[in-house]
Amino acid sequence: MNKILASFVMATLTTSAFAQSNTNSPYSQFGLGDLTDQSVSFNKGMNGVGLAMRRGNEVNPMNPASYSAIDSLTMLFDAGLSGQITNYNENGTKLNGKSGGFDYVVGLFRAFKNVGISFGVLPYSNIGYKYYSSEKLNDTQTTVATTNEGSGGLHQLFVGTGIRPVKPLSIGVNLSYLWGEYNRSVTSSSSSSINTLTKQYSADISSYKLDFGAQFELPINKQDNITLAATWSPGHSLKANALRATTSTNPSTSVSQADTVIINNALSIPTAFGFGLAYNHAQNLRVGADLQIQKWGSVDYPDYTNGTYALKSGMLKDSYRFNVGGEWTPRPLSRKFLHRVRYRAGVGMATPYYYINGKEGPKELSASLGFGIPIMNGYNNRSILSISGQFVRRSADNMIKENMFRLNIGFTFNERWFAKWKVE
Length: 424
Prior knowledge:
- The protein is mostly beta strands.
- The chain has 3 helices and 23 strands.
- A 14-stranded antiparallel barrel has the order 2-3-4-5-6-7-8-13-14-17-18-21-22-23. The protein has a two-stranded antiparallel sheet with strand order 9-12.
């Protein structure tokens, strides 16, 4: 148990130290930022499919019911990082951006028969952008330059359990501490003596998040089965205050005037649902499909309109994400290396959860390819190095188009911690 506690503390400290905004998209300025799923190394190769996936040698936080499948005597760790290159295109003007960092670290062990315990840190959202614009005032020679900048994001420190009360059914729950912040600013300055105006929007978030899951296995024969899955996350207020600070500075005298408005209990997360289906054939083949729904349309969000900063409805919308993916391992017990590699692929689409100037934000199309490479050594031949590439395109009429390539690298460490040694 001391090993488990020490590993949990180390995982938390490591992820907290490396956590950073893993985006540079201007769309991350809306809502709580660019939302992430809870996928880890094996899910990412299948484009995030995982609600109905369950195996004893994988950690799957997407559905805590999967924890009950953990092998006996096994301790699992999974850690991952990613890097991405994005091309932005606005009316023929193209720019490239790079971002990346440490993504997650999770662990899983068996507490009792048919009971698994998981823990770790996962991202919830990312905020990171900086861009400039300029325009000339009508009938003047004055040019106004505006800088938009933002940073932050939310993270989840979680502990969860999965239980199989009867053979076909597993249920589970993740309890997360949700924390983070967002900082956004808009600074306008001119070529004349007009004051520089800075508008800053910020919030500190410290709350909780619950995720419930269920999986139901339907055997077809000795080697084939179908798994049905469902997840539910209740929405609630984050009890976080939103702050808007306006500062006007005279460039000649450096004298500033500030005005601050605070909205109490301004931020919330929505109720979310997920439904999954997976087909499994022995240890060779598995394919799955996920549908995830987030009810952002019922969430109010802070907005500055007509000189008033207040909560406003109709700024966010319900979002939908649909993914299909699979994994094929030619011969898991073969001596040939390529026969033991896990080949993964997936495709998906998603709708945005926010409006931009009254219009729906960009839709997303994505596809991925990946590999799970078995690691062979003298003391452990069950660990897996997962490498996947994902292409994501976000676009909408008369808006910035994004084409992104993301490289994901994850390592699943599988060790027998609880075996009893026999001395003769």
